[in-house]
Description:
single chain; alpha/beta; Rossmann fold; nine-stranded mixed beta sheet; six-stranded parallel beta sheet
Amino acid sequence: QNWAQYRLVMKYLSEMTDEQTLVMYSGHPLGLFPSHKRAPRVVVTNGMVIPNYSKPDDWERMNALGVSQYGQMTAGSYMYIGPQGIVHGTTITVLNAARRVMGDTARHTTNAIPLFVSSGLGGMSGAQPKAGNIAKVVSVVAEINPKAAQKRYEQGWVDELHYGLDELMQAVMQALDEKRVVSMAYVGNVVDLWERLAQEDIEVNLGSDQTSLHNPWAGGYYPVGMTLDESKRMMAADPEEFKKRVEESLRRQVAAINQLAARGMYFFDYGNAFLLQASRAGADILTADGSFRYPSYVQDIMGPMFFDYGFGPFRWVCTSCDPSDLALTDELALNVLEEERSHAPEDIQHQLDDNIHWIREAGKNHLVVGSQARILYADCEGRTRIALAFNEAVRDGRLKAPVVLGRDHHDVSGTDSPFRETSNIYDGSQYCADMAVQNVIGDAFRGATWVSLHNGGGVGWGEVVNGGFGMVIDGSAESDRNIQEMLFWDVNNGISRRSWARNKGSMDAIKRQMEHTPNLQVTMPNLVDEDVITRIF
């Protein structure tokens, strides 16, 4: 939370032995405590509060007192790797959303280029234009902060900056006519962009939103009709009026989105609490039965295609800081995935094909910002075999230094979030957090170097419990053991929970895993014919 805590943390880390564990309470280093060599070196918790005191106002008070903090996801658990951390997930989401709308065959035969519209060019949302280019769409992303837009442009994560709607509309139509993949940033308010598109004769195929609506009243969303500076002044001087302006803007944004959806646009919530906050603002976002008008991307894409089969955002960091080490890890990961693809069951071949393409092109797409890190969606077999290949390369000297394994919290097992990661859980348990808590506990005694557990992350404080880990692999036999034990649990915990929720992909995946793992015994659901239930009830 502050530089004094940072200095204390660094002091403890520089002094600790492998028989001590550093305990972190929401940014506060509680101290070094005796443990043992296989125990985690650091245990992190962020924002863990009594459930009845987990509302946004509670966070504002406790954060001001310095007794709690919003850990987000990887940012609060020492596993943040910049915008690359979300770009793979965004790519496969946009890619598969385009397939839903246009189909693979149509895109290949006509060279059609879908138009994707969204908002946000921050640390996470800034992945959207890069993902759009990789997925081969025309993407238009609104960003009200000129500095954020300029930064993404200079980093090469967005191709063009446009400051006026007239010039932007011309550029969009030209790109679509030329069937040219390009990413554009509109430096302005997202509501203005949606309302203008609703007036134009331009077909928008895909729509989403990545404004920071987990924090709508403190800079996560800016009202239409005001400059950035005006909004900031009102936020501080008149927070109640600012809140009213935000809610009015959300209602207008949804109205424009509804118009475009009626013309055929596929809109999806990207887990930033857009649907949730829009509903609270009174926007026309609910159906007659009270459910959301639009799906979460996890409900339609990420959940049934990836999480249910154990695919998720595995990542690693080369501690040598040497780009050649990262290139070697890319090659090792590619070899593993190609071999896995050769014997994979049909229901995961498509996922493997996309991930093989991703890792083959990763170096060319210039994804690194900061640490020499990579993200790659992989299942249990893929993660484990990739990690073992890395450990062998450290052992024989091909990699110059240890590698840190991790993942996004946004994963198969790591997060309980009814409006995002567990939104495709339909047995009533989507509001339960047993999975995320059990996951951290299980990782801690199976070889993780550090573990973390957070309240909040993605959709906001009080709306989600999530956790993560880091594992240093140094070429040792113990690292081999940790990889095999911990990664297995870290993936199959979530598959088992999703299987019990009657998700077909997970039921198939965990049955296959039990066939290959004699010590694994998972309680399976016994499905009842719908006609029987209908007759009884």
